[in-house]
């Protein structure tokens, strides 16, 4: 029996189904969980009053071998008041808010602050997703820092390594 799930699949010669992705770009599967990209974007925009975010785009990050989504990257534009908050602090606030409102698998792994979104030339205001920067070069590890904070707030002893400690360990 086949069901209309929105997954794209092909039937191999041995009658096995191979999932190739999703029929739409609005929903992706991350670790077998369906994630609505507009819902994650909406959750980010709901933090606007607290964080200063004025625009958000969430893009799935694909495994280079399987071409299947393995994580999410959130690209955000902020309206920051001078002297109040840095983009990095605003990103941390967005991340903390998302951890409180979204399931863990729907929280982006990467958070990329941008001055403005790239648009396709001649298209007016259409987003150029291909021109978005590689998220792995921006604020990598926000999630790990937050998890460390969560572990510490539960009263568990968690070793905290500072830059000097790591320098001594790594030489």
Keywords:
disordered C terminus, 3-stranded mixed sheet, alpha+beta, single chain, 171 residues, two-stranded antiparallel sheet
Account of the protein in words:
This protein is an alpha+beta fold. Helices cover about 30% and strands about 25% of the residues. The chain is built from 5 helices and 7 strands. It has helices spanning about 35-45, 50, 85-100, 140-155, 165-170; strands at about 5-10, 15-20, 25-30, 35, 55-60, 70-80, 110-115. The protein has a 3-stranded mixed beta sheet with strand order 5-6-7. A two-stranded antiparallel ribbon has the order 1-2. The longest helix is centred in the middle third of the chain and has 15 residues, at about 85-100. It is elongated, with a radius of gyration of 19 Å. About 20% of the residues are buried. Residues about 145-170 have low confidence and may be disordered.
Q: Taking all residues together, what is the mean pLDDT?
A: 76
- Profile the largest sheet: 3 strands, mixed
* Uncertain runs: 143-171
Order of helices and strands: EEEEHHEEHEHH
Spatial order of the strands in the main sheet?
5-6-7
Structural class: alpha+beta
Q: Which word captures the global form?
A: elongated
Report the span from N to C terminus: 59 Å
Question: What's this model, at a glance?
Answer:
With 171 residues, the chain is α+β, with helices and mostly antiparallel strands. It contains five helices and seven strands.
Task: Break the fold down into its secondary structure elements and pairings.
Layout: E1 7-11, E2 17-22, E3 27-30, E4 33-36, H1 37-45, H2 48-51, E5 53-62, E6 69-78, H3 87-101, E7 110-114, H4 142-153, H5 163-170
Parallel strand pairs: 6-7
Antiparallel strand pairs: 1-2, 3-4, 5-6
